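Blinded run. Sample ID left blank on purpose so nobody reads anything into the name before looking at the predicted structure. Input follows.
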Amino acid sequence: MTLLFDTLDASQRLQEAGFEEGQAAAMVSVFSRELSGNLATKDQVEGLRADVTQEIASVRGEIAELRGEIAELRSEVRSEIAEVRSEIAELRGEVRSEIAEVRGEIAELRGEVRGEIAEVRGEVAQLRDKMETMEQRLVHRMTIRLGIMFVGAVTLMLTAQSIIIAFFLRA
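Blinded prediction complete.
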């Protein structure tokens, strides 16, 4: 969406205020160009806000999926550990070497699970870092846009002030 500025009306009003036609046309041209090139529209800001909201929702969804996977993995591990304990109870009478093998398998499974949990935690940390980076980029972009808008407004005010001063100095 573009900002509407009635250039004909503005030019006529300046001429009625005592400006020559050429001066009025030049002023209106400058104002129109500054307004159209440097201001973010409400739709643009809302679009950016919607993009950020969507990205945050996406990241939250990914985190929720990871939490679900962790819970599922924990449940599987608990089930596997329960099965191993059941087997140990049944195999108590067997040779100690078989018990040592089972204990070795349990230790290996625990190590794998811990390794996978560590990987998942690392992925969650990366997602958090990515979210923070995206937030910082957004803040940076918004700061730049606000600065541009401020410069445009100051330029517009200084131009208007110069025109008004020139008008009163002529009068």
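Unblinding after everyone has recorded impressions. The longest helix spans residues 96-170.
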